[in-house]
Write a structure and sequence with these properties.
single chain, 263 residues, mainly alpha, RNA Polymerase Primary Sigma Factor, 3 domains, 14 helices, flat
């Protein structure tokens, strides 16, 4: 723990332990500016990291493992903190600590996944795992070929899923396609929803917007059928309103973008 102790001592000697929002914005601007020198960018990154070391300790305490020395775990967390500092963009309005949490956790969990020795299963196979487990609970002597046929999976997957039945399993979300993975992805989706919301409101009436938002789950609106919209929201003729809304949007750029996403 000697290296970690020296690092913490250096941080504690700094009289000002936290950065203000304005200071974070200034450092982030230096990091992201193409005109910044390599030295100034590196100093800005290091300052963001040193001022947030205790955030790494706080998060790493939640992920203590017997097979990991705590200092090693903190080391991976600091690597994640460096990644966050390099990517931090103050223009998006987030405080650095909120943004950095994702990258710290990601670095720590990646280390645990790689060195724990636990088997990993892609999320898309979870449903098949439950199906295989039910079949094996009734007939554990079934062959892999018959198991694959009854579960509707390949023989290779059937053999693999059978081998996991008596092991600890770690579900690996990195196999899920299309889901937000990083804060940048989530920010992009929020910006997309904001654009859709503003554009549709300019073109459509309130009822047309509500019908369209609920039938296509736009901007956080829950999925609803025409009958539900009419009965629960009291909007008459929702099918006609949707047709009119789509007609208004037929020549708009936002409609073309939505078509690409599966409308």
């Amino acid at each position: 723990m000697a290296n970690l102790d020296r690092l913490l001592k250096a941080v504690q000697q700094d009289k000002k332990k936290t950065l203000s929002k304005d200071e974070e914005v200034k450092l982030g601007t230096i990091i992201q500016s193409p005109t910044s020198t390599k030295i100034s960018r590196q100093k800005a990154i290091e300052r963001l990291v040193l001022k947030n070391i205790f955030l790494v300790l706080k998060i790493c305490h939640k992920y203590k493992r017997k097979e990991f020395d705590f200092e090693d775990l903190v080391g991976y967390g600091i690597l994640g903190l460096f990644t966050a500092a390099q990517k931090f963009d103050p223009a998006r309005g987030n405080r650095f600590a909120s943004y950095a949490r994702y990258w710290i956790k990601e670095a720590v969990m990646k280390a645990i996944r790689e060195y724990s020795g636990m088997p990993k299963i892609p999320v898309y196979l979870v449903k098949n795992l439950w199906c295989v487990s039910r079949i094996l609970s009734k007939d554990d002597g079934i062959s892999d070929v018959d198991l694959a046929e009854r579960a509707g999976v390949s023989k290779k997957d059937a053999t693999y899923l059978r081998s996991l039945m008596f092991k600890f399993i770690q579900f690996d979300a990195s196999y899920v396609e299309g889901s937000p993975v990083t804060p940048e992805d989530e920010y992009a989706l929020k910006e997309r929803d904001k654009l859709i919301y503003e554009t549709l409101h300019k073109i459509l009436t309130e009822d047309e917007f509500i019908v369209l938002a609920h039938t296509h789950e736009l901007c956080g609106y829950i999925k609803m059928t025409f009958a539900q919209i009419e009965n629960e929201l009291g909007i008459k003729n929702p099918r006609r309103l949707k047709a009119e809304a789509l007609k208004k949007l037929s020549n708009d750029a936002i409609m073309q973008e939505l078509h690409k996403e599966g409308w």
